[in-house]
Predict the structure.
Amino acid sequence: MEPIIRKENIIIDELRIENGKHLAVPLLKCAAIAIIENPFIGEEEQDLSTYGVLGKQLGRLLMENALRALRISPEDVQSYGKAVVTGLNGEMEHGAALLHQGFDDSIREILPLSKSIVPSAEKVAPAGCTIDVPLHHYKAMKIRSHYDGMEVFVQDAPRANEIMIVLSLTTGGRPLSRVGGLEYKDAIGQDGVN
C-alpha cells in the first residue's frame, strides 16, 4: 500500500537575530509536510494497525525531505516533533493511525541516537487551519533549551477527505535560552529523558 500524495510542502524558518542580538549560527527550523488522501474514508475498519506501513513510508519521506531542504546531515539535527490534521470527513484516529504506527521507526533509522519520544499534536480541522508542532531534543526530553514549537499551515489543506502530516526538525534550541535544567552538553541520552 502506498500513500496517495496530493502535494508536499516545505517550510523553512531561519532565525538570525533574537532580541536584537545577532546569532553566531542561525537557527534553522523545517516543517516537511505531506497532504495525502485519507485511506480510511468510507471504511469501518476497527484494527488500524495495518496502516503502520503507510506511517513508516511517510516518516521516511518527510525525514528525507526535511534533511534535503535544510541541506544538513542527520548529525546536525537537534530537535524534532510531529503533527497531523485530519480533514473534516475523517476522525482523529485516522491521523493517529499514521502518526503513531511506524512513523517514528523511520525517523530512528535515520537518527539512530534518538532516544526521546517524538512529541506530537493532532486534530480534526478544515483546510487552512494552523497546528503547532511541539519540539524537543531528540536524545533527551529534559533539555529545556530545546522546548519549542513551530506553527504550520497549508492554505488548501487538509481538504475534507485528506490528512496533513508534518515532521519538524531544528538545528538547535531556543536562542538565548536561560531557564536552567539539563544542558545539551550534559545529556546522557540513554533513556530518552536525561
